[in-house]
Amino acid sequence: MRLAILSDTHLPKRARALPDEVWRAVERADVVIHAGDWVEVALLDELAARSKRLIGVYGNNDGPELRKRLPEVAHAELDGVRLAVIHETGAAKGREKRCAEAFPDTDVLVFGHSHIPWDTVADNGLRLLNPGSPTDRRRQPVCTYLTARIAKGALTDVELHPLPRR
């Protein structure tokens, strides 16, 4: 199972559209995960139309239309991997401990908000992933997104993809 993992797209405020490379990853993926801050509902509709399966949550910049259609926290089991998605997890300091306590029955937690890529493992084995942003690098050198695979109950091949500057 191939995953494309996005967050903090902020369309159309930070960019007019997702980069073509991201759309190619979306179209190759079996599951697309978006950890919030879509900003406008048009991207949700387009991702839903172009994805085999879409799992998404709303973020702090998402208004009432997106909040009606998306949960604050999403849960899914993907080939034996227990996944949760949330937009914000709080400060970086102590994140693993806080998230392990908040998501005790989860194998992988995808989050966003900071626009800072993150890939760590909590003491209880919870894997925390933040794909950064494909459209708004903020203080990062480049925009980013993640891909990964799930097979036989394991998350593998997690790869952070830097995007060329526009």
Structure classification: alpha/beta
Please outline the major beta sheet: 5 strands, mixed
CATH-defined topology = Purple Acid Phosphatase, chain A, domain 2
Number of domains: 1
Terminal residue distance:
31 Å
CATH architecture annotation name:
4-Layer Sandwich
Number of strands: 10
CATH homology group: Metallo-dependent phosphatases
Beta-strand share of residues? 25-35%
H/E element string? EHEHEHEEHEEEEE
Query: Given the C-alpha coordinates, what overall shape results?
Result: globular
Q: How many helices does DSSP assign?
A: 4
Mean pLDDT: 96
The helical percent reads 10-25%
Strand order of the largest sheet: 3-2-1-9-10
Features:
about 170 residues; alpha/beta; Purple Acid Phosphatase, chain A, domain 2; 5-stranded mixed beta sheet; 4 helices; about 20% helix; globular
Describe what this molecule looks like in 3D.
Keywords: Metal-binding. It comes from Amycolatopsis bartoniae. GO terms for molecular function: hydrolase activity; metal ion binding. This is Phosphoesterase. Its EC number is 3.1.4.-. With about 170 residues, the chain is an alpha/beta fold. The chain has one domain (about 1-160): 4-Layer Sandwich (Purple Acid Phosphatase, chain A, domain 2). It has four helices and ten strands, in the order E-H-E-H-E-H-E-E-H-E-E-E-E-E. It has helices at about 20-30, 40-50, 65-70, 95-100; strands spanning about 1-5, 30-35, 55, 75-80, 80-85, 110, 120, 125-130, 145-150, 155-160. A five-stranded mixed sheet has the order 3-2-1-9-10, covered by helices on one side. It has a five-stranded mixed sheet with strand order 4-5-6-8-7, with no helix packed on it. A hairpin with a 2-residue loop joins strand 9 and strand 10 (about 155-160). The longest helix is centred in the first third of the chain and has 10 residues, at about 40-50. The protein is globular. The termini are far apart. The model has no long low-confidence stretch (mean pLDDT about 95).
